[in-house]
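dumping the sequnces here before i forget
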Amino acid sequence: MQALLALEDGRIFHGRSIGDHSEAGAEVVFSTAMTGYQEVLTDPSYHGQFVVFTSPHIGNYGIHLGHGESDRPWAAGVILRDLAEIPSHPDSVESLRGFIRRHGLCGMTNVDTRALTLHLREHGAMRGFFTTQIEDREAAVAMARQVPSMAERNLVSEVTSGRPRSGMPSSNGRGPRIVLLDFGAKSSIEKELRRRGCPLASLPAGASVEEIESLRPDGIVLSNGPGDPETLLPLLDTIRHCIDRHPTLAICLGHQLAGLALGARIVKLRFGHHGSNHPVKDLRTGIVRVTAQNHNYAVDGDSLPAEAAVTHTSLNDGTVEGFVHGGRRLWSYQFHPEGAPGPHEALAIFDDFVLALAGGAGIGPA
Amino acid sequence: MAPRREEIRSVLVLGSGPIVIGQACEFDYSGTQAVKALRQDGCRVILVNSNPATIMTDPTLADATYVEPLDPDFVEQVIARERPDACLPTVGGQTAINLALALHDRGVWQHHGVRLLGASESALRLAEDRLAFQQAMRAAGCDLPRGALCRSVEEAERALAEFGLPAVIRPSFTLGGTGSGTAGSMEEFRRVVAGGLRASPVHEVLVEEGLIGWKEYELEVMRDCADQAVVICAIENLDPMGIHTGDSITVAPAMTLTDREYQEMRDEAFRVIRAVGVETGGSNIQFAVHPATRRRVVIEMNPRVSRSSALASKATGFPIAKIAALLALGYRLDEIPNDITKKTPASFEPTLDYVAVKIPRWNFEKFPETRPVLSTEMRSVGEAMAIGRTFREAVQKGLRSLEVGLSGFDPWERRGDLDSALAEPGPERLLVVAEALRRGLSVETIAHRTSIEPWFIHQIRMIVDLESQIAARTLPEMQGELLLHAKREGFSDARIAALIGATEEEVRRTRGVLGLHPVFHRIDTCAGEFESSTPYLYSTYETHDEAAPTSRRRVLILGGGPIRIGQGIEFDACACEAAMALRSEGIESILMNCNPETVSTDYDTSDRLYFDPLTLEDVLEVVRRELPDGVILQFGGQTPLKLARPLEDAGVPVLGTSADSIDLAEDRLRFGELARSLEIPIPDHGVAATPEEAVGLAQRIGFPVIVRPSYVLGGQRMICIHDESALQDYIRQSWPEGREHPLFLDRFLEGATEVDVDALCDGASVWIAGIQEHVEAAGIHSGDSTSALPAGGIPEGALRQIREYTLRIGTALRAVGILNIQFALKDERAYILEANPRASRTIPFVSKAIGLPLARLATRLLLGDRLEDLGLPAEPRPPRSFIKMPVFPFRRFPGADSVLGPEMRSTGEVMGIGPGFGAAFAKACLAAGIHLPLEGCVFLSVNNEDKPRLSEVAASLRALGFRLLATRGTAERLRESGIACEVVFKVNEGSPHIVDRIRAGEVAMVINTPLGRASFFDERAIRAGALERGIACITTLEGARAAIDGIRAIRGTILAVEPLQEIHGIGPSAAGEDENPPGKKGRRADRPWMGRIRPLMRGETSRSSTRHQGGT
Ligand SMILES: Nc1ncnc2c1ncn2[C@@H]1O[C@H](COP(=O)(O)OP(=O)(O)O)[C@@H](O)[C@H]1O
Ligand SMILES: Nc1ncnc2c1ncn2[C@@H]1O[C@H](COP(=O)(O)OP(=O)(O)O)[C@@H](O)[C@H]1O
Ligand SMILES: [Mg+2]
Ligand SMILES: [Mg+2]
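..and the predicted 3d for all of it:
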């Protein structure tokens, strides 16, 4: 079936529909990761977004049990150049098309994704409307303009787990106890912490200070999540409390919230960083790591309080990719140390965090 | 840029020497990049490379260019003379690495205080030593194929018990994988092990778990001195393990790994590079992955840039060798800007939004003794890469880039059954897979039989399915949707035409009417995330064009496509020179080529680069987009020359010799007429359409005759035939049924001296750049013969004839640019053999011998300058003796006979420079790996024609103190002339016979001129024995005389080294740029080509003409 994507600025991109769903609107972003489409689609941070994969062949190795970053896809849709109809991998349990259909996602293949990417690069991420009613373009564009913007939606409330999930009492891990505030956490973050022996409880985004404290955490993790951090201002008090009281590791949206909690400003990037190849420099050691990233917003470094020191910057555009807070024990990263999809070399951040909690060490190099 | 090792001011760069299978043009690319990068950073660069056909040896690139043997003695001399601070051994392939290790063992680096950049001696050794490598890998937690070194069949069987069959057996210390093999049964296992033990000089084989059918991957990794590492590219082999990566169709990026699998492989690659201890630079790491269990093992690591890194550089736009050179100087990845985006640093990992497919090209037809089956030993001689938005588009472009007559997945029509073709991988395996799909085999069945990853087979099935849709239509029915779909899937016009029964021209016209043209995308390293300021482009049928042609004056240069025997790196060097010439003339250079190994496809070489097939369709589309002021065809060898006529017909302004003149030179009958009308002697010749005619013709012109099919793809199949029955045999075997194409016959001139002339022409006059004399007589292809400049042995009278004839031909053809002519001198008379109105194979060699950049000068002529404008000397005198010597790939082709003939089989060449012929010849031999003996025993065996002339050679050898060995007849003949000679048995006369003695190492040199068919067997065994022992085996008496001169030279003097810059008094030029080429004088203001512009592309109206008014 023919389909089109109408952008709010009037541009139209054509393709063929993959799923059954005939219409939806979302913000359109592009990801340059060449592997890991399953991880991307199931990452709650992509909630409310259409993901354009710049890599042309998607779906090649199918869908795998245990590769999801949550138990369902969150992206609103996928836009591809070339869908692999028949996956080729011994562990594949389903084709990408099957997955898209089963979950009722929008999907479009056979699209000139490079033209779309260049358009987004030039004009910034924007809202789009996907439809199989290809005759009325005008209407589609109008629909795109009606898609609520990120700033108008509280996406986190839609992705955060409804109830606390705790591994703490039963876990035989002897490591430090961690409470993870789930703004839409990727399961890899939990996995990395558990792998390091940490008993872990995951609390919904709106968890109260009491709920958190009742779990007697040794450390807090502020997770990644979707959308505009400034829609989450009501959460800041809790976050501030966590940061004040506990050693904290903040990732992606969690990092932006930590910044806000410290009084920093947030800036929206033109088209964000989405991919597995982003060079980030650790300003303390000078070492550059290739990192996985997925964000549309960034912390404005100049607005951070004096006690906070920017530790990481993007070598591509100089934006803040990490900071520590001197007085508090806060390690905050814009990129994804857990990779998934993406490189593993920042995994050491989890080691350092767990070590710091265990040994009570201060702010050291991550 | 920031800090670097300040103490490094001069760097020695080692090249890779002659082009051989497995070590080709890619090292000219990496070396050239390194030289340029080091120089731009302010280093004085000293280069040693024996290969004159490279662009890196252009004397304007390095500060001191030594075209000298890559041999420790010579390199040590260079070091002593130049005192470099450091040496970069990692851009010259295994040759440079081995050389660096040899120099280390001699203590040369330490003695002269030269430090090795990139990788330490221990890292280089570790990667090479299989046992040490395995230990290091195990220590780093890597899995490897299980295996053991074994010294007997019993030991091997015990080792095998640990993992079982299939097994791979590799003898230690044999060259080119001789004696290696795979075994699927115990019987086979014992046989291969026994054979391997025999083949190994140390009587040792590595028995390894056979990973036959596993998936093969390569990762290109870079590391800097701060231990920052990145993966530039992951390459997936379409062909499974068991087929050498060099012979595999490879795809970037990797297609069928999950993110977890890929990241784990990436982590492991970093562990490997760290464990081996590569400090800075690029490394290549090969992995095998079991298709079902996904077990992953490390196969090999190369601590240097490689063939795959060249491919990865072209596939991603990330210049690995250039960055490696800068990292070696102490820069860090994040201190080096990404060339393409300019704004982001090099410390990132390229991400692709297209697919690059490399397809190798083979020349099996030149070695009919070897079965064309692919194995663990590399045999391809070149490759093409194609880029498309999907694998399907890329692979179809790749097939037509190969220039083997394919327009895509053409039907596989070979006789023989499909089953065995599926089971036995050969050069046509892609076509075989497609054919199997057409015949209804399932993807699973094919995957099972070929071990090709099913994903790729599915992709091919999509192509085949579309094929049948297309075939069900006619051209008018196809218009619109389906045609666009087919183009998006990579179908060429020619392939569509074949499917629907139209002509290519008709399909093209239909496309034109529908306005269906490709757009051009940029290769930008970042999938569009950042703007690209580098026009590195490929065509694709999408919606958004990024070519952005400029309004400057611009000229398109067509490159030579994939390297094959007969069309090698020389042409790439010429294309690059042309680009440099345009640059210094202030004209924009646009290059088009599809060979990932070359310097011409470095986006740094030209102003704009199109990476696309060199077919008429693809060239026309680039021309349509660029509307160049002119197109240069004559530097790409035969490939673009074939396009001269159709391009001219399409209204494209071709610069240089006209299509008609090209045809006049190429069409042997027309050329014969021309020669006669110019009163130039030409061997009697004719053309035959039927066997009867052929026999009649041969009788008329007289045997022996040279026979050549008028139209054979991928090889010339020329042969010399001595009598009628041989001719009958040839007709039966080699002249295909149907005989659409006639056969050409020439009288073969026996014992004639062959001469190669290279000249520059401006349409009116001719300037001779060099007259080379071949050492071997005519009858041995000019590309396979050793040649000398100056031509010392040619009488003045003959030289006068040659000059006069060259002039006549050049004027008659109204040639513009380069003209190459081959003559045969017999009885003081010069016969013309052929004229090539294009750059010849010898242009780089001659340029280096006379110290003038011929291709650059020719470019000026193409632009409309006159010879007199160039300020050329009357006739250049080479200031030294220069020898060009070919190298051959016989070792790679078991059973291939090393005797030379009129069909070219060499893959590369070296140059020897000396004060006289002997010294130059001796150095050329050393560079080519031929060991001229200084003492010992020489075996002589010559044919009857040569016998009278043998005594002179024998006497010279005796006088030099050699002992002589000959079979009875020859020995008696020599004794009659009073020359002492020992008799040795022929093979059938009992033991120890001559082959035994060669094998036993008792013979230092073989002189064996072919006797003809009678004693074929003995001779072959003799030559094979010599090849095996690595001793000089000379197959012509002329060669023997030259060798004797060489031996005298080696004994008499120390062969000294001297850089080209000193030889020719060329001053240093500014880094990289050549603003001052020799012979540059006033250029014409009224260059005629500027007035020659015709409306481009007939049928294309307003757009092109307005553009042109604006553009020029
Ligand atoms: N154990 C093995 N089983 C099967 N094939 C192998 C094995 N080891 C190597 N090969 C094949 O042989 C080729 C050449 O081996 P490699 O070790 O890479 O040597 P080279 O130095 O020639 O590159 C590989 O590309 C691979 O296809
Ligand atoms: N009539 C001839 N007599 C002797 N040798 C010849 C003759 N014609 C060709 N040859 C030999 O064959 C070689 C190849 O022939 P040529 O016409 O130059 O073909 P190519 O186009 O491959 O260069 C020549 O270099 C020469 O050695
Ligand atoms: Mg290899
Ligand atoms: Mg020739």
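Residues 1071-1082, 1088-1112 of chain B have pLDDT under 50 and may be disordered.
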